TrEMBL record:
Name assigned to this protein: Probable ATP-binding protein YheS
Gene Ontology terms, MF aspect: ATP binding; ATP hydrolysis activity; DNA binding
Family assignment from sequence similarity: Belongs to the ABC transporter superfamily. ABCF family. YheS subfamily.
ABC transporter domain location: 2-246, 310-527
CDD domains: ABCF_EF-3 (cd03221)
Record keywords, A-Z: ATP-binding, Coiled coil, Nucleotide-binding, Repeat
Source organism of this protein record: Suttonella indologenes
Gene name linked to the record: yheS
Region spans: Disordered: 526-547
Protein's UniProt keywords contain Nucleotide-binding: yes
Superkingdom per UniProt: Bacteria
PROSITE patterns reported in the protein's UniProt record: ABC_TRANSPORTER_1, ABC_TRANSPORTER_2
Entry-linked SMART domains: AAA (SM00382)
Amino acid sequence: MITLNQLRLSRGSDILFSQADAAIYGGQRIGLVGNNGCGKSSLFALLRGEIEADSGELIMPPDWRIASVRQETPSLPQSALDYVLDGHQPYRQAQHALKQAEQEANGLAIAAAHEQLAAIHGYALPAQAGELLSGLGFLPAQQQLAVAEFSGGWRMRLNLAQALIAPADLLLLDEPTNHLDLDAIIWLQDFLKSHPATQIIIAHDREFLDSLCQHIWHISGKQLESYRGNYSQFERIRHERRLQADAQYAKQAAQRAHLQSFVDRFRAKASKAKQAQSRLKALEKLDAAPPPAQEQGFQLEFATPEHIPAQLLKLEKTALGYGETNILKAFSLAIEREDRIGLLGRNGAGKSTLMKALAGLEVIQSGERKIHQYCQIGYFTQHSLDRLEATQSPLWHMQQILPAQSEQEHRNFLGNYGFGGDRAYDAIAPFSGGEKARLALALIIAMRPNLLLLDEPTNHLDLAMRDSLNLALQAYEGAMVIISHDRNMLRSTCNRFFLIDQAQVSPFDGDLDDYRRHLQQSLQAQLEATKPDKGSPAPLSRQSQKRNEAEIRRLLRPFKQILEKAEAKVTALETQKQTIENRLADADIYLEENKDKLKQILAEQTNLQQALAQAEAAWLEAAENLQAEEMKYTPEP
């Protein structure tokens, strides 16, 4: 059991929360929610023993083992599978003891090490690590690749797998669904349900929290409050409490106004002076209740498109790819007025490539793209934020897309999305990821599109903004194609699904629950395929197998070299980007005397963001090309 008793926690001079009382019992799963910067990650640091509370008590069993996800992964030569096994320290300790005992030819020590391995089920751990990696989207061949060969997002998956395999009494998961596609999120959700540890989860995924959590801890207004139930139940209870607080405040305000009116009317009259004095004392005793806290919110709303043709866009017998490498075989897809299409499939299957084809980008190898003359596309990609001009303001961006409108019209529009007043004139460089995402969505809304192409629009959005976007999409009258790992959004907004798998695009006949079962069956088939088949022909000799593997490596080497160069370029640019962001985080840079220096830094940031977007696109193309080649040499199950 973990107990918080009158706990106060600060970051520098800022109080995050105080007088916090809460308890967690063994095996519970807690959802930790609140606005960015409210103290969620600081509470995790406190639980890990990295920081201390200002006052109060944190009571936790001293022998509890804590597992959490590392935020950094060095470029290591060891395999992905071996790296994941490093997360199980008792296993590594037993392995080390066994190796040392064998070197010393110590029979008793060898037996003791084997007993220890058996006690922790160590002989099954490599297979368990493989299952974890498969669930998180790693193909069997990828599990033997060096950690250094994976991009940042895939390395975060390795860190997650390392935390999941660790023996733990308390599991701390800070945004575990980041860097995961829908397939991996569904698998992770099922895995955590069967994990015996007490879990505290920070997430912006409503369905993930609803499915897993029995309690919610909410940090707001420098207070930590505990709610029984999942996230949806927490929202209902909180809404009811807000209504009660509003009613109490209104009731007391009316009572104060009534007493004050009596005092003002009769204080000067001798016959009523005594009663007036009595009312005045009652008024003084009546504590003024503070107005209920109002959390800032922004309501997204799509205007009705001017025209919505019956058929907006069609891909006819279209094959997609990059250069000579095919990603998706020839298919046809028509988007009609009423279509709300969700694209399903694992990372790298070609969902974003299909979205690029719909947007008219150069990925069509054969076939034809037909678009109606009145089709107006609003395209949001994972790189939309990088395409914003860091040195320019929200107002400047509005003037670029709608030059005919007046400045006041632009300011009125931007004010609805949190960019009112002087904020409309500020350079966007210091904006948070969530603010930039909100601006990018606002710019799309301003264009009044009749076809939305949304590739992971909820990245960088907190739960409140996700809910706002969800409601806006439900009310949107145009057509839509969306890629998202937010299942609540897919369930609420889509009426059709298409599955992208093994280079093919096909309608998926079912809902997300059917897709979950499809994934479970596919994963089981993949695991079964890796097991030896007693009825299969005799395997190749070791020498023949080595020759085959060497030939495959030779054929794949050019693709890997291209990917490695692309990865190195992305890494170098990300390092430069972090250096610039560190310089922009210095408050002195915004002083008047540093105006020219700031302008230079912002210009560098803009150029760097554009270069990084191009480098990431090149890396994605190289990764998809390599994956397509690897599939040629992966035996069919």
